[in-house]
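Minutes, project check-in
Item: structure for the 217-residue chain
Input as provided by the requester:
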Amino acid sequence: MEKNILLSSAYLAPVEYYTKLYAYDKVYVERFDHYMKQTYRNRCVIASASGPLALTIPTEKSDELKCLMKDMRISDHGNWRRVHWNAFVASYRHSPFFDYYADEFHVFFERKYEFLYDFNMDLCRWVCRQIDLQPCMLPTGYYVASPEAADDFRERIHPKKPCQSYDPQFEAKPYYQVFDAQTGFLPNLSIVDLLFNMGPESLLVLRDCFSNKESLT
């Protein structure tokens, strides 16, 4: 039986998110949910010398009380592109593969995207190409509150929800990290942490992090 999953849009999503892209036959990325702050929709978490560091994309205030994810616009507030890029450089310039990916990755922070959903999707597709991950990703055409034909992870992969409790299919497997001597292994960070540290072997880590403790739909 075909295995389908429904995910929220996410900015350089955590490793857990990418294990779903690895494991499922079809991945539907929600466009028609209401945008919510303090989620992975506009936030990623990377490793710094002092521990986890959250990077947040500012968004434009909407005239609507509730704005659909597909309509959420990126703000230029706080020169965030430069701030985020400098944070990536500070965290990963000594990682094994940062220099290999840096030029292409930097392009995303030089170009001004209008919509957050488009920025997230383009980054996700780029990451997938780098690690030879070939998911069938489809944008949703309308909102379904309780999907019957797909596992619904739109709100289960969340910064404030521990993956151990909300996702028995995911098990964070340690891999090399630049600051692990100072901080210890930091699980389930942004996919770029895995990419810059493990390069082409990232796909093997995703495979090992996916567990069949709970059967898929």
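Outcome recorded: The longest strand covers residues 43-48.
No further action items on this chain.
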